[in-house]
Amino acid sequence: MNKLSIVGAGLVGEAAALIIAREELCRELMLIDVQGELAQGKALDVWQAAVESGSDTRVYGGSNAEMLQDSDLVVITAGVPRKPGQSRQDVLSINLPILDTIMRDINRHAPEATVLVVSNPVDVLTYRAWSLSGQGRDRVFGQAGVLDTARMKCFIAEETGFSARDITALVLGGHGDSMVPLMRYCAVGSVPLSHFLSSQQIERIVERTRQGGGEILGLKKVGSACDAPGVAIAQMVDAIANGRNRILPAVAILEGEYGRTGIAMGVPCVLADKGIVRVIELPLDAQEQVMFDHSADQVVRDIAEMNAL
């Protein structure tokens, strides 16, 4: 990838920038924020760290929207983070106008760029970004499921004592309390998780995964999760930059999959150089479908709330 821009030089944007630069996933990396000097300072710090790792990625920071010019991929992390006790939906009224401004800048300076939305509430803001972009769903999508899946794998490793390297997991639905961890698709070394854990243990993992971000927020008091989201962003960027055709969960605009149309939901997707190659529709059992529909209904309500603002 020639040029990648991250809009939002907060902790998540900085964490993602460091990994992307160190892994040399692009030639030029722009870190853009309304606080231009902050972005410049963080960019310089990230660049020096990347150089020490042997990377030739050049990192620049600033506040000028013209820095977006000719970006191949734009990652949006800008917005206010949650505070303890807040839901992701509670920050919608603040983050919506921020996203609208960023999308206007992208449409002006990098209209052909692929867009990865990370800002919360990510399902609603991904839908908004897509509706403003004029692009197909292959070019505008969100990050949530990679992070949620990583959290679930941690909790499974903790509960079972097995290496996280051997654990596979999958989370669908909205990014929040109504997410749908598909435990039927979770395994350790290809052995179904139910072989090792009781239904009560599995339910504890499901609930902790749903509350994973809130748990970190409550413990840190100031600031939400940043390192794990940064790694999740970098995984998706790597799949796109290197055209890997990886199957990763992403917040995608649905076009009839899972019985839904015109909403943004977390589903397994194939990611390659231009973005989403296809959405994978898994067969759900009756209970899973009920949970997915509940999550989808919540996203529909959230989009309606957004449209009313």
UniProtKB/TrEMBL annotation:
Any single Pfam family the record assigns to this protein: Ldh_1_N
Annotated function: Catalyzes the reversible oxidation of malate to oxaloacetate.
Residues binding substrate: R82, R88, N120, R151
CDD domains attached to this UniProt entry: LDH-like_MDH
The enzyme's E.C. designation: 1.1.1.37
Domain Lactate/malate dehydrogenase N-terminal, residue spans: 3-142
UniProt keyword annotations, A-Z: NAD, Oxidoreductase, Tricarboxylic acid cycle
Designated name of the protein: Malate dehydrogenase
Source organism superkingdom: Bacteria
Coiled coil segments of this chain: none
Catalytic activity: (S)-malate + NAD(+) = oxaloacetate + NADH + H(+)
Active site: H175 (proton acceptor)
InterPro entries in UniProt: L-lactate/malate_DH, Lactate/malate_DH_C, Lactate/malate_DH_N, Lactate_DH/Glyco_Ohase_4_C, Malate_DH_type3, NAD(P)-bd_dom_sf
